[in-house]
Amino acid sequence: MKKIIPVIGLLVVFTSCHHDDPELGFDFSNLETNGKRFVAYSEHDYDVLEEQPWNQLPMDIEFDSSGNVIEDHSRKASALVTTDLACGIIESLASYKVHQVCGTYESVDANGNPVTLSGAIFFPPKGTIKNVLICCHYTVAANYEVPSSTFPIEATLAALGYLVVMPDYLGYGVTRNMVHPYLQAKVTAKNVLDMALGVRSFIVERKLQIQSDEVISIGYSQGGATSMWVQYFMESDDEYKGLFKLKKNYCGGGPYNVARTYDYCVKADETGIPYAVPMIILGMSEGMGEPLDISKFFREPLLSNYKEWFNSKAYNGIQITKMIGVNRLSKILTPDGLDRSKGETQRLYRALQANSLPESYRPKAPICIFHSMDDQTVPFVNAQVVRYCFSHYDMRSGTMPVSNVEYDFDHYGNHQSGCIKFYLKMFKTLK
Q1: Contact at 8 Å (CB) between 48 and 93?
Q2: How far is CA 416 from CA 91, 108, 138, 273, in A?
Q3: Disulfide check for 297: which of 178, 337, 341, 374 has CB 3.0–4.6 Å away?
Q4: In the chain, what's the furthest Cα-to-Cα distance?
Q5: What is the CB-side half-sphere exposure of residue 264 using CA atoms within 13 A?
Q6: Does residue 12 register a pLDDT over 80?
Q7: What is the 3-state secondary structure (H, E, C) of 53-86?
Q8: Is pLDDT of 413 > 50?
Q9: Coil, strand, or helix at residue 160?
Q10: What angle do CA 242, 246, 247 make, to 5 degrees?
């Protein structure tokens, strides 16, 4: 009997060490899910080289001096910059194989009502996974562009060894018959986080081996702003606070202050992304209680066609921009729609302010903010405002400046070029 006891002790020690071996992964069954589940409905294997997702990046339309759409020269130039991106991605990958799982989960709509949403997760078919990577995609208009319907550029990060979580967003996927609450930051952040919680049940069910329970957040453009709000909710909201360990957040080219963006574009009387202007107004109208009177905002032919162009989810941003035909706000919106002292526009502006990042917010987890100083689609003022807030003492709230923020600001070209530079940086950083 005395000989057996030491053997049992050794087995206990060995079992304990074996359980903590990082190769076996973290036990996700110990993490809270708030009752969320990700329920798979389809699966697909992808080869990065065959899919060439870098060719799906949105391109900038060009305009003449009067603001009218002209020939899309960016299509000719984009082959060069996307080749750079493709080479950077390929050099970073250990494997080209990625497994996609599309599924549904429960969250809330813009009115706070329960709703079933969809999204996709991407992960390497074999081997231990490094971390869960929460990816918030950039602005899309057509339903065929969302993660559950395509192989987006961010999904390629799975080939670096990550499990990539990508919601479709409310108004797309299984909710394509609903209006997307575009740039309504709070509901979109909740939708993203609810999917990330639900994926934990999927990880346990499939017995996926993930080395760490730390998550990484990433997003560009609309995704950059959403990723910023995802971090805000992780750290500040009672419903989600303490449920995630955020390793780092990477935000690129985001409209963090949509009210300032409105002011900037109205003053300049132009926008680099004309189809986003109606999307913002339609999106902010959702969940207002009393919807905005759209006739107070849209000029013709937009007024007569916006339901088909936007609500059908059949057209992408380039197609809608060409149908709008101009980038001058004075040719897209009515005089009242450009004047925030007017009744309906006052209501819109208050919604824009409510969906701008609070000036008192200070991130707790490390964050990298990337922005091209030449960006006219999402003006550089967005990044400047965030940098000022994070680096100054706020007298009203008593919040102190923070030192855990990395700023990557430079002349990276237009919004599309900045997007490519951002993703090149992500592949090199997360490699």
Answers
A1: yes
A2: 21, 32, 11, 11
A3: 337
A4: 94
A5: 18
A6: no
A7: HHHHCCCCCCECCCCEECCCCHHHHHHHHHHHHH
A8: yes
A9: helix
A10: 145
